[in-house]
Amino acid sequence: MTYSVYLPVFTYVNFYPNQRFMKTLLAYLELARPLNGIIAFISAWLGGMFASQGQMADIVNIQLLLVSIAALVLLSAGNAINDYYDYEIDQVNRPRRPLPSGRIRRRDALIFAILLIIIGIWLGTLINRNATAFAILVSIALVSYAFWLKRMPLIGNLVVSGLTGVTFVAGGVAIDSVQATLIPATFAFLFTTAREIVKDLEDTEGDLKNDVKTLAILNPQLAVKIAIGFMASVILFSPIPYLFGWYSWHYLVVVVLGVDLVLVGLAVRLWRDASKENCTRIQRWMKWDIFVGLGAIYLGTFL
Question: Which CATH architecture describes the domain 34-302?
Fold first, then answer.
């Protein structure tokens, strides 16, 4: 009888700290945005594969693996710094995130970001001098974006897009060949710029309360037009690699059906309704659709 009464208490006392640790760990994972980190890892790795034309030796290249991990780590650092600086904004726009919900203290998020930046740069030193310089420049850009550039209309969007594009170039840097990474980098730049502007349209409520002057606030109609313009630029750019013989017909089929047609539908939807709820759906569609674009480039390169 005594055993059955005290067993639940014993179990709670022994396992409660572990449960608290797991909740904290999950909060830090959420702060780092693992899906975005995985995209960065894949992008850098694919950049190296594109640069080497898929040579088997580079699939298991330790330098390419290290630069892919560095991309994941530095992007995670950027997300943490961004949430640190956007604490007040996220209390309105995204109150369930780790910082505004109280699951992680702001100071701890900043420490976490600094540690990740140190790790990212250290990984660069294990690759080569160019990779080290690359990691340092990316870290400076991430910090500058969070504390300064993000508040500049359109400039902040272009910085994020540029960082997304150079992730592919980083893979080429790891194996000392960047030429073949320029097409996916351009594709990512155009695609991400459109999505970033849509995200600004989604976040106008919190940005207004915190006096953030994004293009979506200064001129929402112009922001919609520019976002659609960048969507159109992706569509116009997409057949060029096939027409010049750089990618096979497999790329063209997948990119037209899986990317271009989706963007046409999203552009029409954005033009008709630029409300917060609709922009949330549109930018989520775009987030997943980038995987289709990467798949198209992969097929076009290696088939």
Answer: Orthogonal Bundle (1.10)
CA–CA gap between residue 229 and residue 127 (Å, rounded):
38
**pLDDT, tens digit (0-9, with 9 covering 90-100), for 190-243:** 999 999 999 989 888 776 776 677 888 889 999 999 999 999 999 999 999 999
Token digits for 238?
């997409």
Of 78, 93, 83, the residue nearest 139 (C-alpha): 78
Residue extents of the structural domains in the chain: 34-302
Taking the model in full, what pTM does it have?
0.81
pLDDT in tens, 147-173: 888 878 889 899 999 999 999 999 989
Q: Which of 177, 167, 179, 175 is nearest to 290 (CA)?
A: 167
